[in-house]
Amino acid sequence: MASDSMFLLAGVSLLSAMQMGYLARRVGLSRIAHKVMPPSVTGPPEFERTFRAHQNCVECYPVFLVTLWTCGVFFSEVAAAGGGLMYIIARQIYFNGYVKSNKKRLPGFYLTITVFVILSLLGLTGILCGILHKYFNIHL
Amino acid sequence: MASDSMFLLAGVSLLSAMQMGYLARRVGLSRIAHKVMPPSVTGPPEFERTFRAHQNCVECYPVFLVTLWTCGVFFSEVAAAGGGLMYIIARQIYFNGYVKSNKKRLPGFYLTITVFVILSLLGLTGILCGILHKYFNIHL
Amino acid sequence: MASDSMFLLAGVSLLSAMQMGYLARRVGLSRIAHKVMPPSVTGPPEFERTFRAHQNCVECYPVFLVTLWTCGVFFSEVAAAGGGLMYIIARQIYFNGYVKSNKKRLPGFYLTITVFVILSLLGLTGILCGILHKYFNIHL
Predict the structure, then answer these.
(1) At what angle do helices B7-33 and B77-100 cross, to 10 degrees?
(2) Which residues of A touch C127 (CB under 8 A)?
(3) Which of residues 13-72 of A touch B (CB under 8 A)?
(4) Is the pLDDT of residue C4 over 90?
(5) Domain C7-22+60-136, architecture per CATH
(6) What InterPro entries does the database record attribute to this sequence (chains A, B, C) (predicted)?
(7) Predicted ipTM of the assembly
């Protein structure tokens, strides 16, 4: 467990935050293109898919941050940063696919789930080892 | 204020992240059961309640993480972890209740608010004591 | 980069979490005033604007937390805390404006974007300097 500054995790987090801003902007541009004025969230199918794609990313984002940082702090910073970059790519594939059609959201969706499972399992491993070590004096 | 590794907070955070994944899955299963295909978010009342129950958890989740960690870092890790487990249970009661009927969402909702108030007040106490100590040299 | 306790960042984070609770309460009060019962999210224009204003804050909130903490940890805690207070004010202006009319959401919206750009750029500067220092031994 690294105790010094987590530059890679912070960098990936900031990059993912910028991606969230970019995806929100894409929804705004889709509003203009399809003449869907706020606060309405219904309109042509392409707008609704773009809107839902962004909403899904909003739903996933705090879960991503928790799994990124638990994996990075309690297992390996480099592994977590790699997983984080894969997550950002997965979300971009998901978003771009979903904008085109319902079915094209699936590859990016499955890649997102895969990253979540990997980050969670590595983080869980690190936390359980830490708890065994700290509270039960068991070293694995 | 503990400066060493926050295994309990990290463990509760990861558990709550997994719960968020589980609740998202429940919405997906409700989509299949009620034949509501994405990106649509309207359908039979039970689907709409399931969808809103999940959305409410999405709205609460970053607020939970902030109150969990401020309470855990600046007041007491064990108290925060206990509050965090209560939050996870409260959200499950809320979600399961809301799926059944509008009214049955209320017990879990009030329990969630109670946990938020407790975690916030403890975290606020810890932060104010820390600020008085660090910037004004006042020890309480 | 300060390694000791981040009381100001934690205080601003907790304050922003309380604001999120307050804005959620405002949506609840708007439901009662316009007789829009959950799980419905459609109703009179004022309710729909209030609902969307809150949703927009939900979308922004994790992005805010990431930019606040990266700026605070890797650039300057005081600058980040100041930016964080500006964010809270910007969101309140946005919310109150949006409740009144579509157009009145814009000043608070632009102020929010400004805060995001400042926090992100400062955080990015700090992280890049840190990476150059740690991995390439370059001091700026």
Answers:
(1) 10
(2) 7, 10-11, 14
(3) 45, 48-49, 51-53, 58-59, 62-63, 66-67, 70
(4) no
(5) Up-down Bundle (1.20)
(6) 5_LipOase_AP (IPR001446), MAPEG (IPR050997), MAPEG-like_dom_sf (IPR023352), Membr-assoc_MAPEG (IPR001129)
(7) 0.94
